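Thread title: Can someone regenerate the structure for this chain?

I was given the following input by a collaborator and told the matching structure tokens would be attached. They weren't. Posting the sequence so someone can regenerate them.
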Amino acid sequence: MTSEAGRIEPVGEPDGFGRLWTPHRMAYIQGENKPVGAEAGDTCPFCSIPAKSDEDGLVVSRGAAVYAVLNLYPYNGGHLMVVPYRHVADYTELTGEETAELAELTKQAMTALRLASGAHGFNIGMNQGATAGAGIAAHLHQHIVPRWGGDTNFMPIVGRTRVLPELLGDTRKMLADAWPRPAADE
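Best answer:
Regenerated them for you:
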């Protein structure tokens, strides 16, 4: 809006709040890289990640049936997901091997997060289906979100913004270095 004096004036009511702009989240909001169907293939990011290097795919650990990867749009620093290699949507469709390894990598993720970042607690779970909030409902993934006392401060509550203190590549390296190794590797 332009005033009579020719100055550009802000639109809207001033509210005294500063703004933290997070334009990188627009890709998530608009569904970029979200698969268009329920089939496996190039459109599913969880199917394409394993073909990338650990650094490029943000993979922290690889198992025989599942892998652990950093979330591109994290709720907290260190937010990981454990994902089966096989394109499967529903938890009840996992094989016994996949279920067991998903549980084991979840335990390893908790151990690594405690060691690397001193996490005090965790939110662990999966949203089954779009109606339940799954961002990519066609490919099952379990979230492991580290929590710390006082981490829910004014930023996410009032500012509706998450503050992440380091780059995802740095977080991936820190967690990969802290990842528990099987006894046979020692």
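The helical segments are 26-29, 45-48, 54-57, 96-117, 154-157, 168-178.
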